[in-house]
Specification:
The protein is mainly alpha-helical. It is built from seven helices and no strands. It folds into two domains: about 15-55; about 70-215, Ferritin, core subunit, four-helix bundle (Ferritin, Up-down Bundle), CATH 1.20.1260.10. The two termini are about 25 Å apart.
Length: about 220
């Protein structure tokens, strides 16, 4: 199951590029001041204190902080995750030759299909339009997983990749759902997240059991 890490706490991909720009600007100012200081020292040897002051670059402004998570962001994350698991499950039904893996894929399609419909109904009831955050990484993440699965050279390799992804994704999602419970403002959404936890845990436990069995 997928979630958008940009929706997750303190995950704002725009911070790093801004910080790099600020760093380059500060380094450029320092270099300019150094040259200016060298010239001033030759011309005015008695004004060392002033020249040293000029050599110090101004402090950079504080870095931007991550925008708070909204109920619209949470609903969008849940919808994207459900849609991703449905798509991956359908691919597994085509590519896998293993009955256990196919059974897991069917469970993903059924459970996440119901969860997706429930969240869509909740969004309509709350009059909230799901809104992914800026720089949402989920589409690229799903594309990467689908690409790796389609490139699997054998059905066995496909099964391993699919189940490994399921364990990693549901581990992440379980933590995200618990975090969303603390950030959701609508009581109905909080309740829906609480009810979703056992289902996510069931999926994670099943994926781990399949993974362990394949490792023997």
């Amino acid at each position: 199951m997928h979630m958008l890490p940009s929706v997750y706490p303190n995950n704002n991909p725009t911070i790093a590029p801004v910080s790099r720009v600020m760093l380059f600007a500060a380094l450029g100012m320092a270099a300019f001041s150094f040259v200016f200081f060298g010239c001033s020292k030759k011309a005015e040897t008695g004004n060392t204190a002033d020249s040293t002051a000029l050599a110090m670059p101004p402090p950079p402004p504080p870095a931007a902080t991550a925008a708070p998570i909204t109920d619209a962001n949470i609903l969008a994350a849940l919808d994207e995750g459900d849609s991703a698991e449905i798509a991956l499950g359908k691919l597994a039904l085509v590519k896998s030759k293993n009955g256990e893996v196919k059974g897991f894929a069917k469970m993903m399609i059924a459970d996440h299909g119901k969860m997706k419909k429930d969240k869509e109904a909740l969004a309509k009831k709350l009059n909230i339009t799901p809104q992914p955050p800026a720089n949402d990484p989920e589409p690229a993440h799903l594309t990467g997983e689908m690409g790796a699965l389609n490139d699997a050279p054998t059905p066995i390799a496909f099964d391993s990749t699919y189940i490994d992804d399921a364990v990693a994704d549901h581990t992440h999602v379980l933590a995200a759902v618990k975090d969303f419970e603390t950030k959701a403002t609508a009581p109905e959404l909080k309740n829906a997240l609480t009810k979703a936890e056992p289902t996510v845990q069931k999926h994670l436990d099943r994926a781990k059991a399949i993974q362990a069995g394949r490792a023997k």
